[in-house]
Design brief:
Layout (H helix, E strand, L loop, with lengths): L1 E3 L2 E6 L4 E3 L9 E3 L6 E3 L8 E9 L2 E9 L27 E9 L2 E9 L1
Length: 116
């Protein structure tokens, strides 16, 4: 079950996924029914924020928190002539687990700020 802003945005029973009707996510979410992996397409600033994932599998419950920041930048257009040098702008993304609580039975482990 994936949460954003206090609301469930995607969940699965392992066979079928259901999604929020929130316009910010309309036709942009894809939940893998087997792994629970959530893909957000065409990301915009409005989807920046904290996402919570809760996985219930048999008696094991795990919770993960992800902080997502989307930034827009102005695309600078430049005219170049054949043979001119061009520096390409590229995007580099990193995902970090902000807070991960792993629970098994009566034991809970807290893992923070680990690369995903």
């Amino acid at each position: 079950m994936w949460w954003f802003g206090g609301s469930i945005i995607a969940e699965t029973d392992g066979n079928e996924a259901s999604y929020t009707k929130d316009e910010r996510f309309r036709d942009r979410l894809k939940l893998n029914n087997q792994t629970g992996s959530l893909t957000i397409k065409n990301m915009r600033i409005t989807v920046s924020g904290v996402y919570h994932l809760e996985i219930n599998h048999n008696t094991v419950i795990s919770n993960k928190t992800f902080s997502v920041t989307v930034q827009e930048f102005e695309v600078k257009r430049e005219s170049v002539m054949e043979g001119d040098s061009v520096i390409s702008q590229s995007c580099c993304c990193s995902v970090y687990i902000h807070n991960c609580d792993w629970a098994t039975g009566d034991h809970m482990t807290d893992i923070q700020n680990n690369p995903f």
